[in-house]
Structures are given as structure tokens and as C-alpha cells.
Design a protein that fits this description.
about 130 residues, single chain, Potassium Channel Kv1.1, Chain A, three-stranded mixed β-sheet, 3 strands
Length: about 130
């Protein structure tokens, strides 16, 4: 991507200017652009184009926490992910908490992934099955 395009996406992400969709967590609402998030995420595309309440209201509530959604949106806007959720390790409790946050980030990334989904193993048909 050209440097000027990256700058435009970053400015759009940071300012929310001309946004046409909001994504809410329990602590923050993000102003985003359907042209960006729907183009790169089947999850957001479905939420905005199918007969869901979110398509009508222009608002999507997510259960993930603010830092996880922030990192996921940075990815969709092709920005370097700011790992604010990864803090210096102080003790085992901090390590456990940070591990849980990273797992949540991974789950959120899977939710908004741009890759084609592979069915669970139980749905794979073996050429040798009867």
C-alpha cells in the first residue's frame, strides 16, 4: 500500500471523520467506515448487509473488551497493532491476565478474519468414509 493511502486510512481511523458505522464495547464506541471494515471482514459485511438490526441502526455491539476491538480495528485499517494489552510482566497474575487478553484478541481476529473459513474437523469428509 502506498504511504499516502496508509496515511489516509490512519487519519480515518483516528478521527472517525465521515464514519457511517459505530462499533461499541462496554467502555467505548468506535466510529468506523463500512467501506473499510465490510470490505475486509465477512463478519462486519454480514452485519451491515443482511437483515440484521445492526444493518438498520448502523451500530454493532460486541462483547469483547475495548483493547481487543481496538487492535482488531487497527488490523482492518492496515495499521500497526498497538499492543496496549501487553504490559511488562510483573507477576503470575499479570501473566495470566495478559494471556487471557491475547486469547480474546485471537478470537476476535478469527471473528473478523478475511480468510475463508475451514469447517471444523468433524465436518470434513474423508475420501475413505462410507
Amino acid at each position: 500500500m502506498a504511504a499516502s493511502e496508509a496515511g489516509v486510512l490512519q487519519r480515518m481511523f483516528e478521527t472517525g471523520e465521515f464514519s457511517d458505522l459505530t462499533i461499541g464495547t462496554s467502555t467505548k464506541t468506535f466510529k468506523v467506515h463500512k467501506a473499510v471494515v465490510c470490505q475486509k471482514s465477512p463478519f462486519f459485511r454480514a452485519a451491515c448487509t443482511r437483515d440484521f438490526l445492526e444493518a438498520k441502526t448502523g451500530h454493532i455491539n460486541l462483547e469483547e473488551n475495548e483493547s481487543v476491538i481496538y487492535a482488531s480495528l487497527q488490523h482492518l485499517y492496515e495499521l500497526q497493532i498497538d499492543m496496549k494489552i501487553v504490559k511488562p510482566l510483573q507477576d503470575d497474575q499479570v501473566l495470566r491476565r495478559e494471556f487471557v487478553e491475547l486469547v480474546r484478541l485471537s478470537v476476535a481476529a478469527d471473528k473478523v478474519s478475511t480468510k475463508a473459513r475451514t469447517p471444523p474437523r468433524s465436518e470434513h469428509k474423508s475420501p475413505y468414509s462410507v
